[in-house]
């Protein structure tokens, strides 16, 4: 298959160079049948390529037929408005994977999915459609989603099936149930990520702590994220991690929609952030790798662009010749795995595009890196005997050029560094929990932070400080000039407080604490039904104080209508977030080794034929 794609690309190049249009005479007659001139042209190109003449003629006939079909489709679209979509079927369908489907563009995505399922023998709820690198939205029309005439549509199956599945009614029922489970699984993924992103967005009051998903630099320390981008970033990272989890399990059809969603949300983040970390570059590699493993690389018309983007992101993140990375981490052995994948994909893309020399150059780079990064199983075993995991052993050996003793020291030191970082993160998380606890009691964010600072993080001491220093309650999160003037307290709230003191004291307390009954009550109880002297004067001018109540800033989230389901969705996401922060750098390289050898053999066959010529 790969060799045929190479021949197709080379022949297409020759046709362009020679300015030959196969859909016109003398290669196509008036009845749109093949002309005799095609055979002569096939012989010319087969001699040039040192290939079998019949094989070249067969491929050129396929190119001609496709060109004729496209021309016919263009004329038909102009006169009727009926568009042609090129449908790419899953790899398990060995033949006729590319098919043409005619449709109006005003139909919905659901109607197109149904049409594809009926035409090509799928179950409607068992497939997903990807067009223009996006999942087809079922509720929107094709035109609303930017679908145009001659667009490519890729069909993804949620799971591969046996050839005789449709012959067995019982298996067919199991298949439907599996499809429903997979669809629910995908919906849970989306809901779980939305919940985590919403929680992250609620925590913008303290950007130093992110207890769920986090983005870190090369040292493993968290990076501060602008509040406006936090939710998009959390969704991008969450979808990427979920997609990577499916990639590890080789569930490419489910992985791709997650990766494409991650790409969409990453595009909502500023370029300065994406240049700081390698997440976005790794995602581009994962997307191209997923298309390749699905056998649908030709559906990704911007594969070259994505690979160049990844290379440029790595350069900005790691520095020229990895200098920035070497300065920060002292080595770049682990990150070379990413470059091996990059060079391999660049080699594959060039081969499929008919660029044999460029393909050999990149594939040879990948082969050299593989030799450098190969980890001796006996060395991995020796490190595991010291109590390290296989993943730590591989990463450590690559960081230390295969030296076992150095790798053991490196892993131990890295464990200590990460333990310290995790300790700091736990302290930040605890601090945030204490702040939210005080906010839940009605105190403002600023008051809670200042009290906790004075109490060295002790929650009980912070509460005592707030009770004995009511002036702290005046600290408000909003700028005074951005708030409206406070209206007089309502009679209902005054009546609630009268039993703790007289009406004048109750009204004054409500004014001081901006209509917050809870804080006003605490103050009156603590001071025997009266306001402290330092707050009595403030009460007279409280109308000019910010109108937002401290309790209003607590940001309490609404109760979930189905808490158990939300918890399940979140837990399912968290299960796929790897514990090791360098998990994305760890690979056995078993698949890469096989693919490098396979494509190098293709390219070397071309080079051998060229030498004979």
UniProtKB/TrEMBL annotation:
Keyword entries, A-Z: Coiled coil, Nucleus, Repeat
InterPro entries associated with the record: NUB1, NUB1_ubiquitin-like_dom, SASH1/NUB1_homeodomain, TPR-like_helical_dom_sf, UBA, UBA-like_sf, Ubiquitin-like_domsf
Record Pfam families: SASH1_Homeodomain (PF26285), UBA (PF00627), Ubiquitin_5 (PF18037)
Disordered: annotated span: 528-585
Coiled-coil residue windows: 42-69, 162-189, 411-438
PROSITE patterns: UBA (PS50030)
CDD domains membership: UBA1_NUB1_like, Ubl_NUB1
Recorded GO CC terms: cytosol; Lewy body; nucleolus; nucleoplasm
Species the sequence originates in: Bos mutus grunniens (Wild yak)
Subcellular location: Nucleus
Lineage top rank: taxon: Eukaryota
Statement: the UniProt record of this protein carries the keyword Nucleus: yes
GO biological process, one term: protein ubiquitination
Biased composition (Low complexity): 538-560
Residues of the UBA domain: 374-414, 424-469
Residue spans of biased composition, Acidic residues class: 561-585
Protein name (record): NEDD8 ultimate buster 1
Keyword set includes Methyltransferase: no
Principal subcellular localisation of the protein: nucleus
Gene3D superfamilies assigned to the protein according to its UniProt record, in alphabetical order: DNA helicase RuvA subunit, C-terminal domain, Phosphatidylinositol 3-kinase Catalytic Subunit, Chain A, domain 1, Tetratricopeptide repeat domain
